[in-house]
Amino acid sequence: MLLKNDKISEIIDGKRVIVKKPELLAPAGNLEKLKIAVHYGADAVFIGGQEYSLRANADNFTIEEIREGVQFANQYGAKIYVTANIYAHNENIPGLEEYLQALEQAGVHGIIVADPLIIETARRVAPKLEVHLSTQQSIANWKAVQFWKEEGLERVVLARETSAQEIREIKEKVDIEIEAFIHGAMCSAYSGRCVLSNHMTARDSNRGGCCQSCRWDYDLYQLDGDKEVPLFDENDAPFAMSAKDLNLIRAIPAMIELGVDSLKIEGRMKSIHYVATVVSVYRKVIDAYCADPDHFVIREEWIKELDKCANRDTAPSFFTGMPGYSDHMYGSHSRKTTHEFAGLVLDYDKETQMVTLQQRNFFKPGDEVEFFGPEIENFTQVVEKIWDEDGNELDAARHPLQIVKFKVEREVFPYNMMRKEN
């Protein structure tokens, strides 16, 4: 934990280095994503169990899967946090004690919570679990942080609406771990306070059912007496309330110097390609800055790498101040990614230079593909012939999860990924 009196940097061999490196915290909606996040460099992963989590549509983890995930993470020295961040109703109380005890017994390092009921219950029946306050509590001032510290919490996850100056003051005034978002979706309402989904679809956003009403397309009308007069015609782009996604890659040095303890990536519903790409980029940025902060520069290749998995435009949002016109999306709520995830490496034979790969999207001979992963430098090559598991030549890799083989000139490793440009 980085406290306000701790040194962030020291002079070692005549060079300033960061000695309090922040945790890189990644999302995982299932066990495969957890393993990818850890393999690609996450220091910790947050997941949801099948109870008490705000991502009802994610695969989510059984207790047995949580136990397996913890064991895998332990091999890398990584931590697992479980979200239990719903606002509970009476019907959610039965079974809570047993669930929290099961998490503790599975070796989970901490839970992310919003409801005082769950905080009190965890303290009483599962005292080995660290308790982190969820962003659902919308904490953006030091007095509120101080309150939750006095309640015995180990960490506060700040609201996405918190600015750099507010983070600075919080770190100066309160000795507690601070977690802040650095990448992912932004809520168009006030995070943790939106009930659009409840009103429009009867799905409770504070119990895992958010339907993302703000991402829908809308027609806009003006009332003229009893008449509804459309403000746009059929040729205009539809009205939307979407915010651009958060992207703080350029602000990572500032986050580190502010003493933020955990840098959080949003996206438990995202693909393994998204998780691998975003985690690997931020891992490189954090490590490079901490090794030599006075000579650090953001590389253009890192910016481009994040674009390969982005399906919305991005902005720094509230970190640099109040968002303006350019931080919102008008007439659109998404854009096509520049690259498509094509396959996951399962094995590689150095003698034959044959890769065994699990297909994730269509590709064929003649396609130029790119390989990336933590053990290799990104490289591209053209796919020549493709074979199935039985050695039959294929005209294309057509089927999801199909196991195929083809020649790759450079060595690749399990969990490396292959993508192609759209």
UniProtKB/TrEMBL annotation:
Designated name of the protein: Putative protease
Stretches of the chain forming a coiled coil according to its record: none
Family according to the record: Belongs to the peptidase U32 family.
Peptidase family U32 C-terminal domain mapped to chain residues: 338-419
Membrane-crossing segments per the record: none
GO MF terms held by the record: peptidase activity
Gene3D superfamilies xref list: Translation factors (2.40.30.10)
Enzyme class, spelled out: hydrolase
Record key words, sorted: Hydrolase, Protease
GO biological process, one term: proteolysis
E.C. number(s) listed in UniProt: 3.4.-.-
